[in-house]
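Example (one chain per record):
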Amino acid sequence: MICPNCGNQIPDEARFCTSCGFNLAAEQQVPVMPEPIPEQAPDFPANEQIPSAEQTYMPAPNEAVAEYESAPTEAVQESLSPDAFVPEALPQEAYAQNEPAFEPVPVQMPEQTYQHAPDAKPAKEKRSGGFGRILPWILVGLLVIGAGVGGYFFYREYNKVADQRDEYYLANKSLQEDYDELDEKYKGKEDSYDDLSDKAKQKDDEINRLNDQLNEAEDTLSNYDDILRYAEVYNIGGSNLFGVSPAVLYLDIDSGSEYVTLYTEFEGKTVSWDSYGYSAYLDFSEDNWNDVTTLEITPAALGVTLFTFAVDDGSYPEFALLVIVTDG
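Predicted structure:
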């Protein structure tokens, strides 16, 4: 069975709906009311006299009900049509002879019962009760109590968190003060360390400078030894036929280039040269000459350099030019 009120499935023998509580017994006892039969004026022939109110025959109530129930369905539907209520037109003489006009006497109809249409949803029954009236107040009271309890616990937890926050703040402040104190001490130590590092760096620079001077002196001494050794072997300055003037040249490191003269009393021969040392550089002013040419000597560093000259065919003895560069 389906509940006519909520539409849920319920047992066939149930008297009340298990979902909405609708009274199914009251719904089943509602009587079916037949549709009312409209009143119909009697049909009189045109040549008959309209009876008066006293002469009109009205059947007894029981006879009328029996006649209605025994009438065919088509006859009942025809009697319910709107045209059945319109009486046939009577001659003017009939209306004139039977004044006052005909007034139909109402027919007493049997009691009619009303039945809901199958698809129509019956109206819900209004049930009154004390619990339904106080239920909203109970819910409001529970909400107020719940809000109060929740507010109490929230306030207590908030105070607890606030106390912990204050403790953390004080502890952090103490740690920050200790950190600042240690940082000041560290900065003081760092400044001392920087001073010592600067002094150590200065000492290292001084040591490096002294080492450079020592290395330079050793190189100079080595050059001097080489020069002395080569001077013993080579002819310093050469001769009038193949030589230079001056044979020993002194240069200042801050001065510019100096020039010497090379004599070659021969033609068609090639002169080659070499150097021992790095204090000066040599450059020929011309590639081809007859008997005399100029050599440019440029100072480069403190020390001694020995330049040697020779003829490729060995026809003239080899000689040397000694260049000494000083710092003034």
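Caption: The radius of gyration is 73 Å.
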